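Input sequence (292 aa), recorded before submission:
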Amino acid sequence: MIDTKLKGKVAIVTGANNPYGIGAGIAKALALEQVKVFLQYFRVNVDNNKKLKEPDAPGEEFYNFQRQKDTYEILTAIKQNKGQAYEYECDLSKPEAIRDLFNKAEAVFGPVNILINNAAHWEPDTFLFPKQDLINKFVEKWTSAPRTITDGSFDRLFAVNTKAVALLMTEFAKKHIEREASWGRIINISTDGAYCFPSEISYGASKLALEGYSRSAATELGQFGITVNIISPGAVQTGWITPEMESEITSSYPLKRIGKPEDIADVVVFLASEQARWVTGQKIYVGGGHAM
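Predicted structure, token format:
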């Protein structure tokens, strides 16, 4: 049995409220290693007094429904396995929320050793003006019809996917250096479409920028014992993939299946572990061979 040496560490996991999501999978996997997990999440346009029926099958409605939940299901699962977890809702597009997030985590669990940047904003956009016959050539069948890029779509995507990640890493490094710590882990979740993502151009570009920040952080922060790595997932079933989509997606994957949150979570645990002590500045594709 491998000892990850993670017992007693403190981790922030952002974007961790969808019970079917990657953030939830990461939080539960770290908690099994006896990491104290601090869950960040943010629900957009939530009406807590509106009781909606949960959709029966995966798809866009099911996915959006799950993302409007709080972290109750994840916290319950962690605590049933005798793990330690706490939750905090805040909007990472607001810079002041990032300092508050770290202060709250420290007040609950102590200094943060591990930062998992998983939270993301997604919306499709395109360089093509809204003429459907032109757009259809590039749009993936599981993507909602994209709109022409605007300053609004750019700002919304980069605010969470890029700027917030850069500021979270900055706050993590500042606190780490101030307390003269010698062990730290930053793991950033990207997408295997970051290099080129027609019909989701700003989403892909925001994640590619995240990757650039990660490599610079690895270079600068290594002297303080902080490793910084990137996970680049393929299609993962977080509630959005219908059976029809799954059949089409898996046909192009060498391992012939879509991903599960646990597939990503297991690699996160490795990168956080003692076994990955000499791995930094790397991007690992975790997508059944979809990207190599």
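Checked by second reader. The chain has one domain: 10-286.
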